[in-house]
Design brief:
The complex is a heterodimer. Chain A is mainly beta. In chain A, 0% of the residues lie in helices and 53% in strands. Chain A contains no helices and 11 strands. In chain A, the strands form 2 sheets. In chain A, strands 2, 4, 5, 6, 9, 10 and 11 form a 7-stranded mixed beta sheet that branches. In chain A, a hairpin with a 2-residue loop joins β5 and β6. Chain A is globular. The model of chain A has no long low-confidence stretch (mean pLDDT 93). Chain B is mainly β. In chain B, 0% of the residues lie in helices and 44% in strands. In chain B, a hairpin with a 5-residue loop joins β9 and β10. Chain B is globular and about 40 Å long. Chain B has no helices and 11 strands. Classes of the chains: A mainly beta, B mainly beta. At the A-B interface, β5 and β10 of A face β6 and β10 of B.
């Protein structure tokens, strides 16, 4: 079974631009969660989508948004990029939302904002 | 507030020595606790969860509700255990809250 895939793997943007990151979950998984990983703040939860609905949201500004499609693929969008948005963005999928479902992580997208 | 604290950024031990990676949490209800591991150039992956009460790769972790701790232990460290270890908590909102991580370095 193929693992979680994320595209692109690396991205360089400038301040003020917007970016869209993509995540394809493991086949059959319906929940997708997004995390931001930085040296200073560590791993921080962004949001979770299940059956095309946002189920949970972390403490990030509205510039960070996402969506999920009917095939469970998910996209994350960051508008008006700031230097502090430079990070590794991780996506994780699980069978369903909540409870003790194991989350399987993708390799991440490394975003650099100049 | 839900919080996970891993007090050690780096833990260095010699091969064959016991290992204990500390994790303390703050949560008012009954949490689910996990240990995730990231080996060099690999993805973050689940190592173990407290509800399974299992031993994975020789590692065990016991939930101590009185001390609000979930320390990860292994009696004899191996060089291949060198990795970044993250403790994580899942509360009623089902969000996964991670600690800042501890880098374990096992020296030969």
């Amino acid at each position: 079974k193929a693992g979680v895939t994320q595209t692109p793997r690396y991205l360089i943007k400038t301040r003020g631009q917007q970016v869209t990151l993509s995540c394809s979950p493991i086949s059959g998984h319906r929940s997708v969660s997004w995390y931001q990983q930085t040296p200073g703040q560590g791993l921080q939860f962004l949001f979770e989508y299940f059956s095309e609905t946002q189920r949970n949201k972390g403490n990030f500004p509205g510039r960070f948004s996402g969506r999920q499609f009917s095939n469970s693929r998910s996209e994350m969008n960051v508008s008006t990029l700031e230097l502090g948005d430079s990070a590794l963005y991780l996506c994780a999928s699980s069978l369903t939302s909540g409870s003790s479902n194991e989350q399987f992580f993708g390799p991440g997208t490394r975003l650099t904002v100049l | 507030a839900q919080r996970v604290t891993q007090p050690e950024k780096l833990l260095s031990v010699f091969k064959g020595a016991p290992v204990e990676l500390k994790c303390n949490y703050s949560y008012s209800g009954s949490p689910e606790l996990f240990w995730y591991v990231q080996y060099s150039r690999q993805r973050l992956q689940l190592l173990l969860r407290h509800i399974s009460r299992e031993s994975i790769k020789g590692f065990t972790a016991d939930l101590n509700k009185g001390e609000t701790s979930f320390h990860l232990k292994k009696p004899f460290a191996q060089e291949e255990d060198s990795a970044m270890y993250y403790c994580a908590l899942k509360g009623s909102s089902y969000k996964l809250i991670f600690g800042s991580g501890t880098r374990l370095l096992v020296r030969p």
